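Service request form, structural biology core

Requester: graduate student, group of Dr. S.
Request type: structure prediction, single chain
Budget code: on file
Notes: please return the result as structure tokens.

Sequence provided:
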Amino acid sequence: MSVSPPRSPVDPRSPPRTAPDAAPKGAVEHVTTAAANGDANGAASGIANGSAVQVAPAPDVRPRRLTRAARNSKFWLRLAFLASDCVLIHLGFLVAYWLRYELRLWPEQSEFFDAPFSAYYLAEGVLLAVLLTVVTRRGLYRLRRSTGWLDEVGTILNGTTIGVSVLVMVFYIFRPGVTSRAMLVYAWLAVTALLSLFRLGVRTVVEERRKRGIGLQRVLVVGAGHMGKMIMQQLAGRPGLGYVLAGFCDDVSWAQRADFGRFQCLGPIDDLETVIAEHATDEVIIALPSAEHERVLRIVGLCEQCGVGFSLVPDTFDLTLGTLEVDHIAGIPLIGLREHSLHGFNRFIKRSIDVVVSAVATLAAVPVLALVALAVWIESGRPVFFPQERVGLNGRVFRVYKVRSMRVGAEQMLKDLETNNEAGGVIFKMKNDPRRTRVGRIIRKLSLDELPQLWNVLKGDMSLVGPRPPFPHEVALYEDWHKRRLEVVPGLTGLWQVSGRSDLPFEEMVMLDLYYIENWSLGLDLKIILRTIPAVITMRGAY
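Core staff response, request fulfilled:
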């Protein structure tokens, strides 16, 4: 998301209008949830778990073009990060030298082979140049709000690894008089740690400032269709990004006087310029269907005229553009469908990791599973485990086993509870489901009821990471675009599980699954697994 520099740390409020040209009346509700999650890819709670709402009037603020200082603020911030990284890289070499030559850590070395720190000036310069080049090309200094700390650590680790590899080659070719392989290892570890910890500290400070309302950006969403509502939910559920949703503009919602939950319709799209002015908007997110491209272009021009940032959200059809590839024959472009990366050798690597990790995890989970089974048996007797039919790769039905967390006969009680479905779409979720037992509430929140599914991973029915395995009756209600989530093996955990779990609506879950399929990599799998641990421990969105 492109972000314009914030106008002010003050978060002004503005009253809604009852008609396009009417005088202000009342006040606008807006979301000001405290930033509890610094990860840009944090869990979406939004409307589902209720964010804090404040009501306050706002003065009339006219749109204005960004000043030169505002336009250059990001440049100076990037320059400050660059300078800080140079200092930290030098400090990392000092730490490495101290560990190698002062503490004389492994391997032991006699004083005869000691070298002054100046002998490593060239090595430091080479690492500095290579590292900064790599991280700059990988976007470390773009300062995007949606970039998570783990993303930054991965970029830094990649840059230091390449830099040290170049140093090894330089030392091998030119053979300088003083070389220490241990010194390079210590420099690699120290520089990576210092740069990563520095960015973690910056994130902590920024989050604390945002909790106090400093550095927030007021966002206005244009369009209240499926994608517009999704982006509103995501913004409300990810306060760590530092956005405050002022409301949205939509013709149909304005004509029907229909708000979206706690998010208020501020006017029709034709009155966007007035709404931007009245609500001191910093960023406009355009979530209109691709068929309205001419209107989108007019809105983009209006945003540039008013001096506010803007971003475009593709509709459901446009999300498939990432799967297209372009070829040329004699200068004639040919557009075809690119196969997702989860096939061939990549699929073999993923399967190999699944087998090894699930085998080890199954052995480690046996004592925990035994205690859970004993608790279930003591509370509600047998059966302790129960089978379910799920749909896997390419629509193949397979059987999974789970620890029973509900009363016996819970599936027969489902029809009486369907009117209380809180998930929407084709799946059933109920926060206070009366069918759950006392032990069941605990093991479901900690996902311990799914431990037997490690056997399914070992068999190949499931993977460690992938889309949620659906029920056959759910698949029967799928729309065509929903069925794309069946193109890969389902998983124990996935993007939707670490992005809100049961708090997310069904179509948002599908969107996250499709993103995973189209953007799969081993790094993405590792990131999801690492994010699963705090998601399970905090029991966020689990019921």
